[in-house]
UniProtKB/TrEMBL annotation:
Highest rank taxon of the organism: Bacteria
A Pfam family recorded for this sequence: Hexose_dehydrat
Taxonomic source organism: Streptomyces sanyensis
InterPro entries assigned to the protein according to its UniProt record, in alphabetical order: EvaA-like, EvaA-like_sf
Protein name: 2,3-dehydratase
Transmembrane segments: none
Region: Disordered, residue numbers: 1-20
Name of the coding gene: spcJ
Biological classification of the source: Bacteria, Bacillati, Actinomycetota, Actinomycetes, Kitasatosporales
Length: 477
């Protein structure tokens, strides 16, 4: 008599630990290793200079009318590319309420903004060499960098780039990140870009490990996290995209506690998001009030904030050797600083819940101070950003970290900020900070980088710098 039992049931699916503690320990080992298998740390600046000499790099300002393949869209005045790809420069109108919308606006402004709806890839390839994780960094030219060429991720590409909308060459090594092996992913998270200059822009921040052979390429080198930490203490060397990816690395949490539990910190932040009402919408660039268009740039009528300029670019190691494009050029050098203090023997930093018009979700956690001081120099002290004067007046003995870093060189021209970690001793930064500010540990911030749109890009840079300070204080192998 034939069996009616049918095929055997499938075997139960295997389960795995939700946290990869071994991976965190491997990252910690890499952070403690300052002797790399490829280059000595002291050799990296010379290697970058050699790569700069190996190529032709040239960036020249041009009038807006000389932008090739870009034009002012009829009816809106928006700067658009003839392909319909890459990005556009449009207008943005922002109204911010501190509480219910019926209370009246607290701030209301209009400005130009970059709209780039496609999600780019910022990916760093990792590989174990000699028992230590190394990370493949690229010497990449960006037209807006003050020194043009800096240390960048393995892959730094918009969708238009890696789908070759520009008609150029393939983006090297991008296949590791477009369809990564799930068992090899260390970091994969959408993170925001500058909400003051981008409209709801996100990039995919990734670290992916490989066991395969990787071709030796002249513009790439393998470095440990400890080596990169040392390089983060140098001005204008590690670019913004590398810093944001590295800030997301899941180091082990060795701190014994925090002023607020994780649930309390998230509750405070959720309350700030719920309390603030920020409404931003796109408007035609031609209608933005308070801004004027001249032959060389679009700029604010008071000469503050930033301008929209145009450049012609030549870079022989890029996917396209020459092009023109608009760039946002800030007026003045920015300051981004964490006030730092020990609470119960544990290092904490003072974060603010900061609203920016281009954010996807109201507010994100930002440094204690984040501004361009020159934009506020005309204001009385009471109207200047909180803690700005305390940071600017800090003596060297209270500065725990300081370096000049550039912002995203593919969209911003000469955008640099002085990044600092400043001891809070002697300031008005009390344990009970003013509304909109809260103390958190670096470990708590690292945990939040596993999720998108919690820490803004300036806070992520500072977190990467704090990781570098911690790595230096531990010493290295």
């Amino acid at each position: 008599m034939p069996s009616r039992l049918g095929p055997p049931p499938p075997a139960p699916a295997a389960v795995r630990p939700r946290e990869n503690h071994e991976q965190a320990e491997r990252l910690a080992l890499s952070a403690a290793t300052v002797r790399g298998a490829h280059l000595a740390t002291a050799e990296v600046p010379g290697w970058l200079a050699e790569r700069r000499r190996a190529h032709v790099f040239r960036v020249e300002r041009i009038p807006l009318a000389e932008l090739d393949a870009w034009s002012a869209e009829p009816g809106t005045g928006n700067l658009v590319h003839r392909s319909g790809r890459f990005f556009t420069v449009e207008g943005m109108h922002v109204v911010e309420h501190d509480g219910p919308a019926g209370d009246g606006p607290r701030r209301d402004w209009q400005q130009p903004v970059i709209r780039q709806p496609e999600v780019g890839i910022l990916g760093i390839l990792a590989k174990e060499i000699g028992g230590v994780l190394h990370f493949l960094m690229q010497a990449k030219m960006e037209p807006g960098n003050p020194n043009l060429l800096q240390l960048s991720p393995t892959v730094q590409a918009t969708r238009s780039n890696y789908t070759r909308a520009h008609g150029g060459t393939d983006v090297r090594l991008v296949d590791h990140f477009v369809r990564p092996d799930p068992d090899r992913v260390i970091v994969d998270v959408l993170q925001s870009e500058q909400g003051s200059w981008f409209f709801r822009k996100s990039n995919r921040n990734m670290i992916v490990e490989t066991a395969d052979a990787v071709p030796e390429l002249p513009d790439f080198c393998w470095l440990t996290l400890g080596q990169i930490a040392e390089l983060l203490h140098r001005d204008l060397l590690v670019n913004m995209n590398a810093r944001t990816v590295l800030s997301c690395a899941p180091y082990p949490d060795t701190s014994p506690g925090a002023l607020l539990s994780d649930a309390q910190l998230l509750s405070w932040f959720t309350g700030e998001r719920s309390r603030r009402d920020v409404r931003a919408h796109r408007i035609p660039l031609a209608t933005v009030r308070g801004w004027k268009r001249g032959p060389e740039a679009i700029e604010h009528e008071d000469g503050r904030y930033f301008r929209v300029a145009a450049v012609a670019v030549r870079g022989t190691n890029r996917e396209v050797a020459g092009w023109t494009q608009p760039l946002i050029e800030p007026v003045g050098t920015g300051v981004a600083a964490f006030l730092v203090r020990e609470i119960g023997g544990v290092e904490h930093v003072l974060v603010q819940a900061r609203a920016e018009g281009g954010f996807l979700d109201t507010v994100e956690l930002a440094p204690t101070v984040q501004c361009t001081p020159g934009n506020h120099a005309h204001l009385p002290p009471a109207d200047r950003p909180p803690f700005l004067d305390a940071v600017l007046a800090a003596p060297p003995s209270r500065i725990r970290y300081q370096a000049l870093h550039s912002e995203e060189g593919g969209r911003f021209l000469g955008a640099t900020s002085r990044y600092l970690a400043v001891d809070a001793e002697g300031t008005a930064a009390a344990l009970d900070p003013p509304p909109g500010y809260m103390w958190a540990t670096p470990a708590q911030l690292r945990a939040l980088t596993r999720h998108g749109h919690y820490l803004n890009v300036e806070a992520r840079t500072l977190l990467a710098c704090l990781n570098a300070v911690a790595a230096r204080s531990r010493g290295g192998m």
